[in-house]
């Protein structure tokens, strides 16, 4: 049992409350002078019907604090607890030693399934830097939920349906060159697509051909499907190269087209529930009560939309996975789409609409100007990764030219820096990406955290030979105590990240831990004094190393031992 839980139990007993409720209220004061744990009594005022200072006073008198609490102090509306530092070090480090690289792992999510829709790239379209956030946030959530014991289903909801694919096939039939497409894949498809639009402006009949090919896809025509499948395969081959570099996995690639045959049932259901009405030729679900524009379900020509397929997809996911949460990691530009989607599901009487969530994020742009897909000024994600790795290689040549497996380390740092920067602020904020900033070893960056990890590794290598019992008195100074408290709070950071679907809590945590450790490292000699003292400090360093490594891995980032 951890200290907070033990403390919460004694408080609960004195206050006549439930321990988990109290545990949820306990805070860690920002300034250690205010104690190592604090109970904000104003949060109990309503239930106990007393003023917060009175509650604090009474509890301080009544409470039989656990042995590791050396002092209990009522301060205004707070009840502050001071820990015995020797005992604290001992208990935190023994929990960490036992967990090793599994610190913070839990079974809190056992029996619950979380579906995460992320990355969700479009066929025949470039995998550009705009997909970075969805991919990095979704993948981090995927790993974090798994670590917390949830069953997780990662879905790449491919954009593989729409009239544009008819045009693409028409263009391919007219001007396509198999060799070129095989070699250049998406960029060759893009070229065909652009040419189609240019020529269609002069020759209207091309659009007719495009429509005809789309109809063939819809009808399952063998040739149309074969070509389309081939385009899909090539697009995915390119995407998977990036996924591999980013350590991203999926359990399902069921894209939009997968839901085509599931749509009639959804339409029946909507009709049965009297939700489908005709409006200007189209079929819509009115959402006036929700204060939203109507959701268009069928266009006047009877074709379905992105939203229709998402409706079918949501029902399918509920039926197939019986999810506890169903998350969509998609840019905030699609806010309205998801509001409408969830509102329609609710109108259909699906209570589980409450368990669906749009995990929205802001835009990523490069420092040298925003992106425009239309003008062809596309920044490919793969190129960003490659450039980050190249720049890292140059840094390594300068700082540590003798390093072994430079290539691999450069890849781990360069790619890690890109991921880390994407996750280092609250996801809803827009990001302006700068190579120099994200690669700075001294900034609030991935490389800084990785560097701290290598620092731990090299300290540990130097005290590997020592034997004896740790002397915890070597860890009672303020700096060591600050590191210990952070180590103990890793599970809370993971819980916050999963509750709010914000990997940023983990990034922030890693920066805090790295900073606290570096302060400790600069102000204290680790390999000093008796073997027992050094062993105790080494245990602290090992705890930091393992926790940094685990935290980075949850974000999809490697932690090399040397860099
Ligand atoms: N392919 C879409 C896009 O690039 C994202 C799909 C998100 N997932 C979903 N179920 N709508 O905008």
Automatic annotation (TrEMBL):
It catalyses: tRNA(Arg) + L-arginine + ATP = L-arginyl-tRNA(Arg) + AMP + diphosphate. GO terms for molecular function: arginine-tRNA ligase activity; ATP binding. HAMAP family: Arg_tRNA_synth. It comes from Christensenella massiliensis. Keywords: Aminoacyl-tRNA synthetase, ATP-binding, Cytoplasm, Ligase, Nucleotide-binding, Protein biosynthesis. A motif ('HIGH' region) lies at residues 121-131. Residues 1-83 form the Arginyl tRNA synthetase N-terminal domain. The keyword Metal-binding does not apply. Its main location: cytoplasm. This is Arginine--tRNA ligase. InterPro entries: Arg-tRNA-ligase (IPR001278), Arg-tRNA-synth_N (IPR005148), Arg-tRNA-synth_N_sf (IPR036695), ArgRS_core (IPR035684), DALR_anticod-bd (IPR008909), Rossmann-like_a/b/a_fold (IPR014729), tRNAsynth_Ia_anticodon-bd (IPR009080). Belongs to the class-I aminoacyl-tRNA synthetase family. The gene is argS.
